[in-house]
Amino acid sequence: MKLHIFLCCVVLFLASASLAQQSMTLTGTVGASAISIYRVVSYTSGAATLVPHSGTTSGGVGISASAGSTGATITVIPIGIAVCEFDGAFTVGNVATVNGDKCHDAGTQSLTASTLVGTGVIGIALASASSLCTSCGTINVIGPQQVSPIVSSATTQLPPVTFASLPGAGAPGQTQIFTDTRYTARHTGSTWEYWYQGWSVVPPSTLSWTWLNQGSATIDVSKGFAQLAVPAEAGENIRMRYRTAPSAPYSIRSLSTFDPYTGVNYNRGGAICLNESSTGRFIIYGSGYASNTQLAAYFSAYNSPTSTIFASTAYLSASSLVWYRVDVSASPNTITYYSSATGDSWIWQGTSTGGGYPFTGLPDRIGFCASSGQATYSVTQNIYSWVVQ
């Protein structure tokens, strides 16, 4: 009997929202051996009937979405979201391979065209279980190995997940959208690359950071971007997340928003912050309030986290998502500041030369920071991309 192919939609309920993900389904007749639900199945080309899969390599047509005995018609999912019974524990993001008619957690792997075909890869686990679980092994099926080359299906979009649940492995061209953030991820075959509202970005959560003068400030990177929250404090006090600066020349580019309390002066958000550890001096470059009225791009120099040298307003509205850029060069020491609404067309905001004022040399710590500047209202600095080139 022929296998009849049609499309249906599997509806997933994630983060209190219903999101549709297309899956391909097949219907076919069960052969000599009964087939259980949620199992890997193959078909016999001669009799064109479905049978339980055997072995650990290629041959599986998909996952059974219903059960049946000899002569019954059942539904099989070769591409898309399916539940597969695993042979033991499994972890979200790991590669699922076939082990007889069950799925098997094969750990993390880099899936490429050469590793997909004929290896027994059936999909990517979308859930975890610490022990045998017959009906909770949700996977993204990417391998109908008897129906068509699975390389072609590896370019499809993965089902939506939270940012923290991004699979560790993927296939070239696979894209991932998220239920809790505006990032989109695409797998190159070796790693994930990210976009935010159409921009190619580097989420701060993918980098390593160290606190400087943390105080009661907190950081949240669970959704990819860095959300630095600084509580209300009497007087300015810089709270910074930093990395060691590379050798000059280099360029820092930061995509950010700043959430101050409206109209309060001394709120400072540092999309890019520079620190010279030998002197303790800082530069904050980002958003702040000018004369208690307008949120604007701000440059501030400090002798210490609590001692301001001066602040200068750049007349660029920073009430929404803004790119900031700082170029650092040596011989002579020079620091140049830019801002942009697009990330590719830059407005020059100023240049400091000599020691890279207020530094005696060049900064050895680079990162992002914020200061609430007053005792009533907290502030939040959000960083969506932070790149050193």
Key structural traits:
single chain; 389 residues; mainly beta; Jelly Rolls; 2 domains; ten-stranded antiparallel β-sheet; seven-stranded antiparallel β-sheet; 2% helix; 48% strand; elongated; disordered N terminus
Give structural notes:
The protein has 389 residues and is mainly β. It folds into two domains: 4-155; 204-388, Jelly Rolls (Sandwich). 2% of the residues lie in helices and 48% in strands. The protein is built from two helices and 28 strands. Strands 1, 2, 3, 4, 5, 6, 7, 8, 9 and 10 form a ten-stranded antiparallel β-sheet that branches. The radius of gyration is 27 Å and the shape is elongated. The relative contact order is 0.11.
Task: Briefly characterize the structure.
The chain is mostly beta strands and 389 residues long. The chain is 2% helix and 48% strand.
Layout of helices and strands:
Layout: E1 4-14, E2 17-29, E3 40-44, E4 49-52, E5 62-64, E6 73-83, E7 95-99, E8 102-105, H1 113-116, E9 121-125, E10 138-141, H2 150-153, E11 175-177, E12 183-187, E13 192-196, E14 199-201, E15 210-212, E16 218-220, E17 226-230, E18 239-244, E19 250-259, E20 268-276, E21 281-290, E22 294-304, E23 307-317, E24 322-329, E25 334-340, E26 347-352, E27 365-371, E28 379-388
